[in-house]
Every structure is written in C-alpha cells, then in structure tokens.
Automatic annotation (TrEMBL):
Keyword terms: Cytoplasm, Glycolysis, Kinase, Magnesium, Metal-binding, Transferase
Enzyme class: transferase
Record organism: Isosphaera pallida (strain ATCC 43644 / DSM 9630 / IS1B)
Gene behind the chain: pfp
Site-annotated residues for Important for catalytic activity and substrate specificity: 114
Gene3D superfamilies from the UniProt entry: 3.40.50.450, Phosphofructokinase domain (3.40.50.460)
Subcellular location per the Swiss-Prot or TrEMBL entry: Cytoplasm
Top-level taxonomic group: Bacteria
NCBIfam families from the UniProt entry: PRK14072.1 (NF010675)
All residue ranges annotated as the Phosphofructokinase domain in the record: 5-326
Entry binding sites for diphosphate: 13
Pathway participation: Carbohydrate degradation; glycolysis; D-glyceraldehyde 3-phosphate and glycerone phosphate from D-glucose: step 3/4
Name of the molecule in the record: Pyrophosphate--fructose 6-phosphate 1-phosphotransferase
Single GO cellular component term: cytoplasm
Length: 433
C-alpha cells in the first residue's frame, strides 16, 4: 500500500508539553516513510484544515523539530477554539474536500474533550462518505477533566502534571511573600485556572503535604459560600495571624461579568472582573483580628506555558502518547484516542499506553472526585496527593539557552499550495443584516 499523507493539528488552551506530543507524532511518522507520506500541520487547528492552510513540516530542520520538546504553548503551529457543530454541514464537507485534495490518510488531533469530539466527528464523517481516513485523538489539557470519573479511560492528561508543578511552586513562593509581609497583607488570595474542575487548585496542597502552612483551598466543588469563606479566613487569622487562600476561577461568588470562548466555556481570565478580586473585595469589608488587608494575585496563562516549571514526567509522557497515537493509526485504525493508564500492580509509579474509543471521551467532562475533598471542604485528602505527586516530577527541566534567553523551536511556516477555492469557516461568517 502506498504511503498516505498526514495532518496533525491541535485545539483548545495550550500547555507546557503540547509541542512534545506534536514532536512525538512528527518523529514517529518521519521514521516510517513506507506508511506515512508528507506530514502537514493544520495552521491554527481545524481552522487551518478548513482554510486549507497546511504547514509542510518537512521544511523545518530536525533541530527545530527536536526543540519542540522544551517549547511551550502553541506558537509552533497554532491552536484554535473552533468547534465543528452538527449543523455546520458545509464545514464537514470542506474538511473532507481538503483531506481528499491532499491525499491525507491520517489525521491526528491533539486536545481536550471538545477536541476529541472533533476527532470523533471527523472519523464518523469520513466513514459516512467512504473516505479512507484514520482519525486518532491525542489527549491534552491542564484541567485534567478528560476521561471518566473512575480514571479507567485515562489516568491523567498530558499538561496537567506541569500545571500542578507550577502551582505547587507558586504557592511556596507566595508563602514566603505572605510570611514576610503579614503585618500589612495578612491575607493573600490566589486564583487558579481550571474553570469548574478543581484539579489545578487542588495541586496547591502539593506545596505543603504536611499541612503546616495557613493554606485554604476553595474549588468550585467545595460548594461553600463567600460568607463561609470569610469566616474560615477570620478563624485562620485568629490562629496564625495570616492566611493563604487559593480559589478556583470557577468558585461561585455570584454573578459577575463573564465572556465565553467558541466552545461555550467561560473565559474567567478574560472577563470584566475576577473571582479573586470579588473575594478580596469581600474580605476587606470584614473586621480582621490583625492589622492589614487582603490582597490578590491572578497568575494568567503562565500557569500553562511556564516552561521553567515543566514536569519532566509530563514531558516524557506527552512525547510517548504522541508516538503511541501513530502506532495506533498504523495498527488499530480509526476512531481511537491514545491514552495512558497507571499501573496498579506495582508500588512504583508507572504508566502504560493504550487506546480508548473516541466516543467514550468526546465532549465528556470528568469531575474532581468527591472522595478527594477533605471533610472541611477547604482541603484535599492524602489519596489525592498520592495520585498527583508523581505527576509533577523531580528535577528541573533543562531548557536550551542562547545568551541567557530560552531557545524555542521555530517551525518554518511553509504552507502547501492550495488546490481548492478559498473558504471561510461557517462560524466566522458575518450574519446578514
């Protein structure tokens, strides 16, 4: 059988390690030219496929591909938040036309639950129209909400371990600030990403597994009120004279102005105000038993792209899951997501790489287990710590440097020659007056 061309793309919020997954796919495809022909990247995800903007990855040197290992975020080939919805028939037809026009036989889509839904829909449509296409999903999300609540479909998503490592170290540094400035700023409120899923704020406890710090964690799953939060902080101030408050961006503080992305998810960091600011404002209406006021910090996209804090475990797993996706495409065919599962038959942390049908993970949000919430609702259990601690790795990752500056990959933006008329994705079209 003649080699068929490849399209790899990604969507959703990027991570520290997403480019190492991309690298794993590229290098595995390049290593098997008898099966995989030209390897293209969809520029800005599925939007690049719709617009027929395909980057020829062979135009980039092996050195640049290798540098993807420690290149964060999505600058290499771009990402998107474009969703293929059931009523967008023209979009589906266009995807098929573009893949046919460029003899694409393999489609890899890196992302979270909505991205796996896109991979599933592309796989289904290809089957319906008789297109010989193998579509494979590849997991990625810092939120760790991909999969089922029993952790049998995927143990954790590449990207989460690095976000958890970032937040654990952020809390350690914030504690030094709070301990030294407690006379003026006894309460420090820190907002964590994760929408309404608590895996990232929960990682704050990794900074202090012995529970020695005056640390309180408020996830959306905590189901506490702003007034309860305030009373907890006052009690902590009575005991310790200071308090670190970690609050999820999805913690319920009542109505405030929000914006949404194309997937329909609330973009808390892009909204008119923040949960942390609401909490700070409320706390500063209370009478503290110590001097000073509350102040807040909202680390932004640094939580998902600070390569200096990347987990080595996360990087290695991200690469291997990309390579495994290529193995699945070669041996199992279409309609699967590459997955990683934790071995339960050994005390040492180990994972195995497997597969799961795309329809089992498409557009499904995993929740933070209730059993991992402490009885006081402002902490997590040791069972969560045992789950999360291996994911953040040990030593610091070595990032190539040139004159003290990080040397990131620079993928040559060599677009293939279009073979079809120009196309505007349906969602981007202006509505008639």
């Amino acid at each position: 059988m003649a080699a068929r061309n490849v399209v790899v793309a990604q969507s959703g919020g990027p991570t520290c390690v997403i480019n190492n997954t991309l690298r794993g796919i590229i290098e595995a495809c390049f290593a098997d030219p008898a099966t995989f022909g030209a390897v293209y990247a969809g520029r800005f995800g599925i939007e690049g496929v719709l617009k027929e903007e395909l980057i020829d990855l062979s135009a980039s040197s092996a050195e640049e591909i290798a540098l993807l290992r420690t290149t964060p975020a999505a600058g290499a080939v771009g990402t998107c938040r474009y969703k293929l919805k059931p009523n967008q028939e023209e979009d589906f037809e266009r995807v098929v036309e573009v893949l046919k026009a460029h003899d694409v036989g393999y489609f890899f889509y890196i992302g979270g639950n909505d991205s796996q839904d896109t991979a599933y829909k592309v796989s289904q449509r290809a089957r319906e129209v008789g297109l010989d296409l193998v579509a494979v999903g590849v997991p990625k999300t810092i939120d760790n909400d991909l999969g089922d609540d029993q952790f049998t479909l995927i143990d954790h998503s590449p990207g989460y371990g690095s976000a958890a490592r970032y937040f654990a170290n952020y809390i350690l540094q914030a504690n030094e600030e709070n301990a030294g400035s407690r006379t003026a700023d006894p309460v420090l409120v820190i907002q964590a990403m994760g929408r309404k899923i608590g895996f990232i704020p929960a990682a704050a406890r990794l900074a202090d597994p012995e529970r020695r710090l005056p640390l309180q964690i408020y996830m959306a799953e905590s189901k506490l009120t702003l007034e309860q939060l305030g009373q907890n902080v006052l009690n902590q101030l009575e005991r310790d004279g200071r308090c670190l408050v970690v609050v999820s961006e999805g913690f319920d503080v009542g109505e405030f102005g929000v914006t949404r992305d194309a997937f329909g998810h609330i973009q808390f960091s892009a909204s008119q105000t923040t949960v942390a600011q609401v909490v700070v404002n409320y706390l500063n209406t209370l009478k503290f038993p110590v001097t000073g006021k509350a102040r807040g910090q909202v680390p932004g996209t640094d939580q998902r792209n600070a390569m200096a804090y990347a987990s080595g475990v996360d990087l290695d797993e991200a690469y291997e899951v990309g390579r495994h996706a290529v193995h699945l495409a070669r041996t199992e065919g279409t309609g699967y997501m590459a997955t990683l599962l934790r071995r339960r038959d050994t005390r040492a942390y180990q994972v195995i790489y497997d597969k799961v049908p795309l329809d089992k993970v498409a557009a499904f949000d995993r929740s933070f287990p209730e059993r991992w919430l402490a009885p006081n609702r402002i902490d997590v259990t040791d069972e969560f710590l045992a789950y999360a601690e291996p994911l953040i790795g040990g030593d610091w990752v070595s990032v190539p440097q040139v004159k003290g500056r990080a040397r990131f990959a620079r993928i040559t933006p060599a677009l293939v020659t279009p073979k079809l008329p120009a196309y505007v994705p349906q969602t981007h079209r202006l509505k008639p007056e």
